[in-house]
Amino acid sequence: MKKSRTGQAIRATAQDARAARVLGIDTDRVYAFTFAFNAALCGAAGVLVSIIWVIQPFYGITYSVRTFAIVTAAGLGNLPAVIGAGFGIGLFEKYTGMILGTAYEVAAPVSILLLVLIWRQISMKRNRQVVQ
Amino acid sequence: MIRSNNFFIYGALGLLGIFGPIVFPDYTLTIAYLWMMVLMASTWDILGGQMGYNSLGNILFFGIGMYISAIVQVSIFYEGGVGEYTSAMGSIKPEFTNSEYFIGLGLGIICAGIVALLLSIVFSSFMFGLRGPYFAIGSLGLAIAAAEITITIDYVGGASGISMPLFPGDIEFRSTFFYILCFIMATAAHFLLRWLYSTQFGLAINAIRDDEDKAEAMGIPTLVYKRIGWGIAAFFMGCIGAVAGNMAGFIDKEVAYPIPTFGIFMVAMVLLGGKGTLWGPVLGAIIFHIIKETTWTYLLNLQWVALGLILIINIVYFQQGIMGWLQDKFPERFGVVVDTETLQSDQKSGEVS
Amino acid sequence: MSDAIISVSGVSKSYGGVRANVDINMEVKRGSITGIIGPNGCGKTTLFNSIVGYHPIDNGSIKFNGDEISALRVGEIARLGLLRTFQQTRIYGKMNCVDNMQISVSHRAEAKSSIFASRKGEIKDRAEHLLDFVGLYSKRNLISGDLSFGQQKLLEFAMALMNEPKVLLLDEPTAGINPTLINGLIDRLRRANEELGITLCVIEHNMRVIMNLASHIYCLSNGQMLADGKPASLQNDQRVIDAYLGGH
Asked: pLDDT, tens digit, for every residue of B23-44?
């Protein structure tokens, strides 16, 4: 994202798509590439999950919520924080399952999500802002 | 809104509503579900279309309403209490008299609506700090959280669910009764929203959709309007959830929180019909429901493929929906004034251009 | 009641390494038209944003009618009667002009019942009257997003008037306006100030406009207050001429 031309194009499009287009970046290509890259990473992650769990078509939704919890907690575009939050939430989920029982496992990341949202709201209030 | 055709539309829907189950008695429950969809779509549109806050989690109030109603209905006349009932896993079948059942049902529906409303007010405090896709996924997360947390509560049956008290009366009466409930709720919601959109409230939520920062900068207390909008949606979703629980006869996580199906259908119906219009959700719900029923009959499990395809085609090529498309084609019939005549008068009076 | 309806004292604001405002002291007198001038990037819009509550300030205090507002948020400040217009005109693009006006009515003493007030009636009459005041009456039923830029600017101004503010902060109101129409706008600004009693605080680059309109002008440069005073004295102030008025 930092060094390659494609990465720069992605960041430019994210910040101001119209300006990027005017300066010659093919934003449709950028969107397509980003989505494809995302799909590839998710596919690879899916392989890792399939090693541990039974495969089932509807598992994706809970992972989407976990993902959102991680990214909201870590902040957009902050890769080290996302990695850290990913580990953190994953561990928290497993520990919750261990201590409280596996029934609570799925509730753990969504609970964290809600807590993060509430905490964000409170801290944003002090700064006169909203979560964009 | 179409003015002169209003009478015809209400007439047609009224005919369908009143005579549908009489002319097609086998389809009574199907049409009841149709009215349920209309209600879901209409209430989703308050936030989604009129205010610009796409909530993927409105279905959460549906589920909560269902469970609350179950608790009220069982506990009100069964002395053992809900805990005993649920731990018996369906072996206890309480006998209610007719009046007990209906009073329980009525109270259940009202409590469901009110609890859903109160919860939406609580959730509003932190949910509306989010905008756009964050609000969408946040509300989805909220719904999933509610679903997951509900199945851990043994008082309401945990993962095994609750069976609802039996309806006193034969099957036909049962279908008709629930049909009437659904129809009344959908109609009440529609007329409430029709009045609501004609007041300052309607303008305010449209302003929030068009430019929320500007609305805030002009002093509009946006949180108040968001709360009211979501509260109305929550109330109706809670009420219809209570009815749906009784129609299903048995409640568990999949019945109460059908997030990937009905939770998303709400959005799909409104998109199909046209976001942010009074009739869009209604139209979309009717068409979507018809498509859903026919694809189920002819395609069985491929129904989901068909519905998914419709959703994608809608979003990619036809985002304004049917009502949006009609409004673009015939703006005058919707009260939108087009510019042509004013040009000449401008040049004469020397006004700004 | 103090004479100053807005008083800014010792306000500083930095964005990361950029010090946008450094120790600004300013007063807007009640009922006056005050101007703010200065080269691009000197911190004028940042000052406006600080006053109306868009971001927290690092130091200092901002008082409106004697009450401290530096910790309040945008909506609360707007409901106290302090409004601003935007440099890139912002209106509700999908609603028609009358609706834009109607929703701009003041939400100050908002009794809960007025949330559900009907859309016909006296609010609509006032809206149409104000649209006539700015010259947009014939366009009142058009979708506001379809208006030209100049017309949208006028609509935004009319919406601000509809809100019956005590103070209106205008961010470059003549930017992008056809020069022959500027006189009309200036006239309306003056009438709003004199007839409706609205205090104005205007950021402007058009010297002819601001020197004729304002009774007191502040000049910023590089984030600091350079000079202030009556238009005549500022025009002759060497520091102002060097920083801004005199060309290179």
From this structure: 888 888 889 999 999 999 999 9
Mean pLDDT score of chain A, rounded to an integer?
85
Share of chain A above pLDDT 70, in %: 94
* Closest Cα in chain B, distance from residue C141 (Å): 6
Q: C240 and C174 in one domain? A: yes
**Degrees, nearest 5: CA angle B131-B253-B251:** 125
Residues of chain C under the 50 pLDDT cut: 1, 248
Identify whether residues C132 and C39 lie together within a single domain. no
- Asked if residue B215 belongs to a domain, the reply is yes
Question: Of C111, C138, C162, which residue sits at a domain end?
Answer: C162
A132 in reach of chain C (CB within 8 A): no
Mark yes or no for CB contact C73/A127 under 8 Å. no
Asked whether residue B252 is domain-assigned, the answer is yes
Chain C contact for A127 (CB, 8 A cutoff):
yes
Does C90 map to a domain? no
Indicate the pLDDT class of residue B66, thresholds 50, 70 and 90: very high
Q: In this structure, are C192 and C155 located in the same domain?
A: no
Q: Which of A114, A124, A125 comes nearest B145 by C-beta?
A: A114
Is A27 in CB contact (< 8 Å) with chain B?
Answer: no
Q: Would C61 be classed as within a structural domain?
A: yes
Range of the domain at C177: 4-81+165-245
**Nearest chain B CA: its distance from C243 CA (Å):** 32
| Neighbors of chain C with 3 or more C-beta pairs under 8 Å | A, B
| Sign of the four-CA dihedral B242, B244, B250, B256 | negative
**ipTM score:** 0.88
- How many structural domains comprise chain C? 2
B217 interface with C at CB cutoff 8 Å: yes
How many other CB atoms are there within 10 angstroms of residue B122's CB atom?
9
Mind listing the pLDDT tens digit for each residue in C29-81? 999 999 999 888 888 989 999 999 888 888 899 999 989 998 888 888 998 99
Residue B343: predicted pLDDT:
43
Nearest to C92 among B210, B221, B345 (CB): B210
Q: Nearest CB to C107: which of B209, B219, B336?
A: B219
Residue B179 included in any domain: yes
Task: Please check whether residue A14 touches B, CB under 8 A.
Answer: no
List the chains bordering chain B where 3 or more Cβ pairs fall under 8 Å. Answer: A, C
* Residue C232 in domain: yes
Range of the structural domain that residue B65 is part of? 6-337
Residue B236 in contact with residue B189, Cβ under 8 Å?
Answer: yes
Question: For residue C1, what pLDDT is reported?
Answer: 47
- Into how many domains does chain B fold? 1
B133 touches chain A (CB under 8 A): no
**Are A66 and A89 spatial neighbours (Cβ–Cβ below 8 Å)?**
yes
Q: How many CA atoms lie within 13 A of B297 on its CB side?
A: 6
Last residue of a domain, one of C110, C134, C162: C162
Each residue's pLDDT tens digit, B89-107: 666 676 777 788 888 899 9
Residue B353 inside a domain? The answer is: no
In this structure, the answer to whether residues C130 and C200 fall within a common structural domain is no
Do the Cβ atoms of C54 and A128 come within 8 Å?
A: yes
Stretch (H or E) spanning B321: helix B321-329
Considering the domain architecture, whether residues C63 and C174 belong to the same structural domain is answered as: yes
